[in-house]
């Protein structure tokens, strides 16, 4: 019996191929036509894909990737890592693998737009 594979996003660069284990990702951060991938372990890398392309690839995957949420123009987050939402501070807090809080500033409009999804977890 083959081992169960975790949902992985495969991104092909010019001279590299990135295998992104989505369960280990905290969030993707937009950087023009690139994205930074921040892992719960503290590891970080940059991939040659913008968030729109990453979002499309996530939607096209056969695996369940509904835990990855496009929160704003700037972020795609792993909602399984979500610890707190602060509409007053206009921020969300994600927890990494060792319990450190990672605070991401998010516009109040983006929070309002996604509050139903986020509060229904």
UniProtKB/TrEMBL annotation:
Residues 15-116 form the HTH LytTR-type domain. The keyword Kinase does not apply. SMART domains: LytTR. GO terms for molecular function: DNA binding. InterPro entries: LytTR_DNA-bd_dom. Pfam families: LytTR. It comes from Prevotella communis. This is LytTr DNA-binding domain-containing protein. Keywords: DNA-binding.
């Amino acid at each position: 019996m083959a081992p169960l594979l975790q949902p992985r996003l495969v991104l092909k660069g010019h001279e590299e191929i990135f295998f992104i284990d989505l369960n280990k990702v905290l969030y993707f951060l937009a950087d023009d036509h690139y994205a930074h991938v921040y892992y719960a372990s503290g590891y970080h890398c940059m991939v040659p894909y913008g968030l729109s392309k990453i979002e499309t690839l996530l939607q096209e995957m056969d695996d369940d990737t509904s835990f990855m949420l496009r929160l704003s123009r700037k972020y795609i987050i792993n909602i399984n890592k979500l610890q707190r939402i602060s509409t007053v501070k206009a921020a969300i807090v994600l927890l990494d693998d060792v319990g450190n809080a990672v605070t991401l500033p998010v516009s109040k409009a983006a929070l309002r737009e996604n509050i139903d999804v986020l509060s229904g977890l």
